[in-house]
Each structure stands twice: as C-alpha cells, then as structure tokens.
Amino acid sequence: MNVFERMLNTQALMFVYVVTGIIMARSKILKHEGRSSFINLLLDITLPCMILHSFEVDVGINELIAAGEIIIISSGCFLIAWLTGKIFWIKSSHERKAVLEFATMFSNAGNAGLPIVASVFGTEGVFYASFYLLPARVLIWTVGLSMFVEGTNFRDKLKILLRTPSLDVVFIGLALMFLPVKLPSVLSTAIKNMGDMTGPLSMMIIGAALGESNLRDAFDLDAFKLTFVRLVVQPLIFLFLLRALGVQDILWQVTVTLTAMPAAANTEIIAEKYGKDYAFAARCVAVSTIISLVSVPVLTLLF
C-alpha cells in the first residue's frame, strides 16, 4: 500500500471519528462543559503517551543525526511560516490579524498530525515528528503568544512551556533511549495502548466543536483564504524546497504532512483568553479541519 492509500484510509478513519464527535455534541452525549475534560485527557495523558512510546526504539547514530536535521528543518519552516503570515495578512483588521498570523504559523500538528503520522509512517514517523514539534512547543508560547498580547512576562511564558507534558516526555524519552534501562513490559504496553487513543479522541473532540457551531457562520472569506494558505500554499513550498535540498524521504514527508494540517486547535482558545476575535478563530479551525480531510490525501499524490 503506497503513501496515498495509507493517507486516504487514515483520513477516512479520521472522518468517521469527526462525525462521531458531531453526533455526540448534537445529541448532548458530550456537552460543551464536558469537552474540556476530554481535551485535558488528550493533552495531558494520551498524546504524551504516544510520544513517549515512539522513543521506545533502538536508534543508531544515523537516526540521531536525522533527528537533529529535522529540528533544523522545523525551525526553518516556522520562520518561513511566520514571514508568510506577515506578508499575506498585512492589510487585515487588527482584531483578525493575530488569529490569521497565528493560524498560518501553527498547525494542528500535535493533536491531529501525530496520530496521522503514526498511522501512515509508523513509530519511526512519530519519532521524527516529536523532534519536529520541539521548536513548535517553544515558539507557540513565545512568538505565538506575543501575536495576541504584548509585554507578556518571559517567566510566565517559560512556566507554561515547562508545564507542557508533550514537551516533558520528549526529554524523558531521550533519557530512556540513552540509559541502559527499559520500562517494564506491562507499563510499556499500557503507555502504547493509551497513546493509541490519541487519534480517535482528538478527532472526536474536533467533531464535537464542529457540532456545537452554526455551519452557516463557517462561510467566512478570510477563513477560506487562511485555509488555502495553511493547506495548499505552505505545504507545497516546503515539499518542493525540501526535495530540492535533497532531504531524505521520511524527513520531508513527515514535515510536509505536519505542515499540511489544519489551523492549530488552540488558536481559538488563546484568542478567547486574550480578547481577540475567538469566534472567527473557531471558524478558521473548523473550515481548515473539514477541508484537510480531503486536501491531505491529495497532497500525498506528490510524495
């Protein structure tokens, strides 16, 4: 089975999970106030477990060099994405500019991208994706946060960053890789099984958010412009650039897959917290998420 077929099957599964989330929200099985508990379960338990399990592999010097390479690639991609946001949205209104620039720079690579990478590229893909996300974890609470609020205390940003479980487990995983110890098999299996919940859970949460929204409000021209930049323009830039630079296949394919994800789910959360247009942010997340179910498999035809 080629990459396109694996991606198509994976996105079909994700679509089923999204529809399930919509049904859960519409039927009040999952109410708005209960969704935050599922989000905490995803961010604090299942996603960190999936990342930690990806480090339970035997790696050699070549894999470590590739991990360092993808950190450099990731940093370059975020720089290009930051510049893209500044250029594309220079004439946007003040209320929307922060949302558009943030959503252009940061994709839903963690919540949605990692499960897809796991399904398509396996444990090796998650291993590299975890390193790709390292710069994102730092930038989202520094550069990203500064888009919404000026003068945020650096110490507060650092506290938020250090309390991110998905970042913490990367360092735990690195320690396990180099120390001459292995996790007990029961614990290792439990971590794997909980990590496997990430894909269905993340998509059902997104589906529940869609189920709570009014679909007529989704037809916002700026949201569709953002979706085009997020799902088409940037992935194509990175695809042709990385292939031209001779980056090995697994690295550029994981990178392009993660950059082709919809707008980061926490775009709406941060916008609401800092008094920006969070309703518009929610529309950007919703529109880009729905269209990504089709655009991502189509993009892999170029792999």
Characterize the structure shown:
- The chain has 303 residues and is an all-alpha fold.
- It has one domain (3-302): Up-down Bundle (Na+/H+ antiporter like fold), CATH 1.20.1530.
- 78% of the residues lie in helices and 0% in strands.
- The chain contains 14 helices and no strands.
- The chain has helices at 3-26, 32-54, 61-88, 94-105, 109-140, 143-146, 154-162, 165-178, 185-195, 198-212, 221-244, 249-259, 266-273, 278-299.
- It is globular and about 55 Å long.
- The protein starts with a helix and ends with a helix.
- The model has no long low-confidence stretch (mean pLDDT 85).
- Kindly name the structural category: mainly alpha
Domains counted in the coordinates: how many? 1
Helix content: over 70%
What is the C-alpha radius of gyration, as a whole number of Å? Answer: 18 Å
Note the main sheet. none
Which CATH C-level class is it? Mainly Alpha
Oligomer: single chain
Instruction: Count the beta strands.
Output: 0
CATH architecture annotation name: Up-down Bundle
- Round the mean pLDDT to the nearest integer and report it: 85
What would you call the shape? globular
Cα(first) to Cα(last) distance is 13 Å
Poorly predicted spans: none
CATH topology: Na+/H+ antiporter like fold
Helix count? 14
Element order: H for helix, E for strand: HHHHHHHHHHHHHH
Portion of residues in beta strands equals under 5%
